[in-house]
Structure formats: C-alpha cells, structure tokens
Amino acid sequence: MRQKTLHFLRTNQKLILQVALALMFIGLGVYFIRHERAELGKVADSLSQASTAWVAIGIVFALLFVLVQGLMYQYSFRAIHEHIGLGLGMALFLKRNLVSVFLPAGTLTNILFFNREVERKEGVERTQIYFASTIFSICSILSSIIIGLPALLWLFVSRGASGDLVVGLAATILLLAALGWAVYSFVRGGRAHRWAERLAPDFFDVLKELQAQDFSRRDFWAVVLLSCVIELIGIAHLFIAIEALGGTATLEVSIIGYGIVLLLLMSSPFLRGIGAIEVALTYALTLYGFEKVAAISIAFLFRFFEFWSILVLGIFALVAQRDNALLRLGPSFLLLGLGIVNIVSALTPAVPQRLKLLLEFLPMEAIHASTYFVLLSGILMMALAAYLIRGLRTAWLAAVVLSGLSLAAHLIKGVDYEEAAIALATLGALIYQRQQYFIRSDLRLAQRTLFPGLSAVVGVLVFGLLGFHWLDHVHFGADLSWGQSLTSSVRTFFLLDTGLPPATRFAREFTYGMNILGAGSMLFFAYVWLRPYIFREEPAEESRQRAQVLLQQYGRSPLDYFKTYYDKLYFFTDDGQACVSFKTTQQFAIVLENPIAADAKQLEKAVGAFDAYCHRNGLRSIYYRIPEENKELYEKLGKKLLPIGEDATVNLDAFSLQGKDKKDMRNAVNKLERLGFQFKAYPPPQKDGFLQQLRAVSDEWLRDMGRTELVFSQGLFDEKELKKQTILTVESPEAKIVGFVNQIPNYQPGETNFDLMRKTADAPNGTMDFLFVKMLEHFKNQGFHRCNLGMVPMSGIEKAENAQEAAIKLAYERIGQFAHYRSLRAFKEKFEPEWTMMYLAYPSALDLAFLPGALGQVIEP
What pTM was computed for the model? Predict the structure, then answer.
C-alpha cells in the first residue's frame, strides 16, 4: 500500500500541487470575503454605480479578447501550414477555457473535447491539431513571461522592501543578466539547456517534434505577438475597471496589477486562481493608495471582464455543441459555480429592502440558519463537483439534496432569487443527467469509520466547550455560560463567526485550532462517504474450474489461457453457457478480450448481461483487446472502440529463412551455431533445479531492462505454471541458459503461442532472432500451422479516423518513451506475420481520461 501511495504521489505530483494550490487560493478567498464582510455591502453599492460607458468598453475589450484568441488559434495552425476558420478558432478557445477551469488544459483535454470538431469541419489531420495546440500553449506561456516578469520587476523596484532603489536596480540587472546567460546557454545547448531538459523532459520532446515539422517561424512569432496582445487587453481591463469605478488609472498600476494576476495563473491554472487573484489584486491596489472598498470593487469588476464573462460565453459554446462528454461535465461545472455563488452570497449582506420584507414572515434565527447552511453547502459543493466527474451516485444524491436545499435557503435568507435561479438550473441539470451517476461509494468503509469519526467530532466539541468556558474575559472579553460555550464550540467547528473577537494570541490560536479540527473532520467524512466502492469479490476455485470447462468447449483465442489466470474474477450468464473474465478498479470492470461463449449470439448476450451486472455494482464495463472481427458487434451494443495495437500471427506453413530479406536472420542463426549455442525444448514436467536457472535468467532480464512483472493479458514468472509447460531455451557451449520462452495453451486448433521471452544481459547479439527462428521451426515440426506472437501496443494505425486514434498514432510514431514499441514491431516484422487490429471497447469518451490509470492498476500482480 505504501509503495502504491508513493507511486501515485510521484506520478501525479504536478496535478496534486495544482489542486492543492487551487484549494488554498479558494480558502484564501473565503477568508478574505469573511474578513471583509462589513465592506462587501459597500462593494455592491460601488459596483452598482460603475460607469456604464466604461463597463461597455470593458465588455467590448472582452469580446476583442475572444477574437484575438481565435486569431491565435488561426495562426497556430498557419504555423504548420494548416487553416481553420476564425469562428471555429474562437469557439475552440471558449470551450477549452471553460474545460480547463476544471481539467488540465493539455493533450488529453484536446483529444477528448476539441480535436474531432477541427478535423470534421476543416479536414485537418489530428497530428497537426496536436502541434497547433502545442504552439498555442507555448506562446501563451511565453507571453506571460514577456509581460509578467517585467511587471514584477517594476513592482520590486518601485515598491520594494525598505524602498532602496539602488538595491532594486542591482537585483534587476543581476536577474536580467542571469536570464540573458540562461537564454544564450539554452540556445547553444549548454548547461542551462541540459538542466532544463532534466527538469522538463516532456517539454523538450515537444520541442524536438516541432523542430522536425515543416514550420513557419513568421507565423509562430505572429502567435507570440497575438498572445502579447492578449496580455495587453488584460492590462487594459484593469485600467478600465479602475476608471469605471471612479478611480484614477495609471499605466504603472495596471501593468503591475496584471503581472500579479499572471503570476498566480501560472502557479495554479486549476480553477483559474479563484480567490487568490481577488485577494492579491486588492492588496496590490491598496499599496497604490486605493481605499479598501474601491480596491475590492476594482478586483471584482476586473475578474468579471477577464474570467466570468468569458466563462459564460464558454458555457453557451459548450451547450451549442451538444457533445456527450462535455454534457456529462455540465452538472459538475454548474455545481462548482453554485458552490462559489453560495459562498459569496452567504458572506455578503442581504439587500435591505428584501430583508425587511422577509422579516415580516420569518424570524431572524431562521434567516441566519439559512445563511450558515448556504455557506457550508457552498464549500461542500466545490468538493462534490470533482466526484461528480467520476460518476459517483452518492455525490450525485448529495449534490441534488444540497442544490434543492440551496434553492430554498437562498429564498429564505434574503429572497435572493438570482442565486435561487442558479440553484434551480443546477438541480435541473443533475436530474437530466441522472443516468450518468451510478458508481457506488464504499459505504462499508463509511460504516466502519462512522463511530470513530463521530467520537472524534464529539471529542473536538467537548474540547471547544471546555476551552470557551474556561477561557474567561481575559481571552475573549466575556464570561460564557455552558450553553454559550457549546454554541461557540459548534460555530467554530463549522467555521462560523462566534461574535467573540479573540483578545489574546492564545485565544486566536485556540480559535484557529478549532477551525482546523472542524474543517479536517468535515473533509474526513466527505472522503469516506464519497470514496468509490472497491469491488472486493475474491476469485473462487470453483468459478475458475467452470470457466476452464467452457474454454475447453468454446475457446478460440490466444488470450484464453490468461482468462483463467489467478488474477481474474468471473461472471457467468444465467444459463451458464458464457463466462466473462475480468478485473476491477475503483470504478471500472475491465474484461480481457471477448467473453467465453459458443457463438456471436451468446457473446452478445454475455456482454449485455455483464453490463447490467456492472451497473448494479456501480462499475463501468471496459473490454480490452477486442479483435477486429468482433468490432461491429460491440458497436451494435453502443460501445465506442479505440484501436490499441495490432496482433501478430505467423503462418508456419509459409515461414522459411529463404530470400534476400532474411539474410540478417540467417546470419544471426549461423553466427550462434558457429559459437556453439544450441536450441533445446524441454517438455513438462520441469525439474526444480531447471526452474531455478530460468528464475535467474528472468530476474536478470527484469533488472537489466528496468521492468517489473505484469499480468492481466500476459503472465509472470510462476514456477507452478512453468512446471506444467514446455520450455524452449538457448544455451551456451557451457550449458548456461542465455534465453528462453515458455509455450502456453492455445485453444484454437492448429495454433500455438508463448508468453515469457527473456534473456541474460551477456547473451550475444542475435540471441532472440536465433531463439524465435528455432522456436517457429520447432512448432512447425510439432504439427502447428500458426503461431501467435502477441500484440504490439499502439501500432498499426495507418490513417486515424478520430481524435483518439490520432493521439495514439502520434505517440507511437513521435514520442520517445514509446520507442520500445516501435522496436518490438520491427522485431516481429522480421517473421512476416499477419496483423490483426485489436480494440478497447468503452461506454463514454470521458472514461478515456481515467482509463490509463485503471489499466495501470489491473496489470499489476
């Protein structure tokens, strides 16, 4: 468990850091709004008095912002000699901006949501779409540095600590000199280049691919220029916001304020800096003499121009496309937005006229209770939004309840019909998309932790009760009764204001401690109640034997042997005539190839029954390595199919070493024979001493190749299994085993295949060629007609039919970390096999975002 946790943290550290920063920023924003609650009513009045003319200019600049972003997309494609329309470029930006608020704006996001539209409307190849998007992203980052760095340096010089201009200028000169050296070293391939390549290898892979493209430098710099225009529009928006609210705008304030915004966006693009930008910008404006109310108002109006108005336009663009994956994200976005609205609404004063009207029907206590509920529900909604993306049923139920109660609470706390309308829209979207949410939560974990959790909560509340009662007026300026102490304890636990300002440092630390304990307790309960259910059914020997019987009757696949491997679970149809072999993760049931069935009709029946079984158990069914011949059947059942590689099968009857193209293999075989190496076949049962020799070869191969054992669609080194199998070896003149393969059962008549292929580090060049040639000749002499060589992942896509295929083709052909697949393909091509495309069948495009991690789990032993 510890190793899995460390692996998860290492492989997801960037995303974890971004999410942590985003949550910290949100918390900072909540604290800021709560701390400045008395000023927020004045902020609303200030915003209502904003100059209509200046606001209109700001909106025009926002539209210009979208237009220039569309031009950036156009010129990004022109840089690689492709063309898209301006309207499509603007729509791409709006949707990408919207999705990237919640998901990282990268390759996978493009694949899932945007590439297909560009290909369909403009006929651009997917590979080119990827490069254009990469150019867009790189130029956006570059312009942020070009504009943001000088702005921050300006701030340091003009408002530096102690106001020492000489120190500021010296630091600026040194920093610029260091930057100049770094650029020179980078371009020349020096130390800065090597350091940066170690720090960001993925970025350098992209640079190498871009260098290999037919690339227009002029159009690339046009994209950089347009991106700088985007930053200038941001500066103009801050200038306009200041003028609209009656302030005196200067270029210095606008540039420095916007530079701070860029810094925060670059540090955590997730959730677009919600909370932190408002706080930081407000603080920066106060340094330039703006009153607090004016500074907050300017920050809010600026964010409307730069963020919220663009987000609303993105929602319209999203709804207009009617894409399934995007629509599935809709409720999550709405819930996130409602959560933010709830927090802001709860921390801002009610409209006096509405409150006066409401007090004629409801007591003030009910209004206060509704306000507190709106605040807490807002915090919970923002956490629930992430779980909704995963399709959790419990998260959906909680979201429905909170949205419904928020609808009522907004009306009760101040007749806030605007916020109530948002709650109603969110509730409607959740109900409309209800069928998407069926992943079960792990209620057994929740039940096991309920008593300890409640005990901890009671302990915290008792601690608060005693603390508030015993900390007398010296610390809080009041002597509290037991009832008042309990009320204060509960309020601090739920992060609410007690009305008791701490008078001493100890009192402040006590209050903060209660807040932290309360927040931690709520997060703990949210986690255990929303944690996805982990399917824990154990493999039964009786089920394995039943599956083995069906394999003997209906088996016809090279993968059938692994369908009864020790790591599999089994599902049988009601009549017992078909079986599904699968493994589970938190939200997926991943099936190995087709179900074991007599014919296509039984296979179709088994898939339907298993899908229903998965739905009942809160799992999404995925079918891994579906052969080309079954593609139409899965499409008929509503599955989406993704090609994942080609399977190689050698025709043994036609195989020979004759011909000019076999010269290298003949040379390898002749070389090893001259050196005294021999091919040997060992029928079962195998002796323990022999298996120990094989173990040494296997361990050396794993260590030398830097690999670990994998399962699911392949086997691992298991003495019990190998003892029952034929082993084929290459041995040196000293009888040392330098390479081996193991022959495994194949239920297709006339066909055979193998599993492990391993060799020692000191095996001579050509050892595997020698072993495979002799192995194929041996199988041919044994009377077999075909030999399956296994699948080469990601290979065989000649012309991509959709965005997902294009991404796989691109990764296979261009990205260095998949070069070993190309080498494997080249090795198998030597034997002139027949290639068959294999597919992944899945229910929804959004599932692809989570499948790499799920597949990584099921292949672990």
Answer: 0.57
